[in-house]
Amino acid sequence: MSNQAEFYQELLGQTKALISNESDIIANMANVSALLFERLAEVNWVGFYRLVGDELVLGPFQGKVACLRIPLGQGVCGTCALTGEVQRIADVHQFDGHIACDASSNAELVVPVKVAGKVVAILDIDSTALARFDQQDEQGIMSIVKIFEQNITAQNDTKR
């Protein structure tokens, strides 16, 4: 699809449909990572890391075998989790402290998943293409993560 905005609107609708009636966060992580892996061009890994204590622990993903645990502040994912800020890296090999789980990955987009303002997980998307992700990709993935965060918050509210 040539129009990125339309593409991400469609992807957002598909995400809502996938997770709106499911309360299990792991099941939703699995389906969201599968959807993004299937629909995004030039990606070789899509998945979640959950924040457990002071490290990220591998969650549901699509792609090659991945690093199991990443300390806070280390690599692109650990930096995202520590700062709570999106990391859009054109060339991961130029990122100080990059952790190469898959040496064929060249670009990365990592978005924090927050509940009540605190990072609970990150969504990590890798590509073999340098500079694969642009501002529209970042905005599109952030909107998908927002829907995911709203789903988690709604589930937490119903458990109280």
TrEMBL record:
Enzyme Commission code: 1.8.4.14
GAF domain span: 39-145
Entry-linked InterPro entries: GAF (IPR003018), GAF-like_dom_sf (IPR029016), Phosphatase_reg/MetRdx (IPR051330)
Pfam family, one: GAF
Tree of life domain: Bacteria
Keyword set, alphabetical order: Oxidoreductase
Leader sequence segment: none
GO molecular function, one term: L-methionine-(R)-S-oxide reductase activity
Similarity comment text for this entry: Belongs to the free Met sulfoxide reductase family.
Protein name: Free methionine-R-sulfoxide reductase YebR
Organism: Colwellia marinimaniae
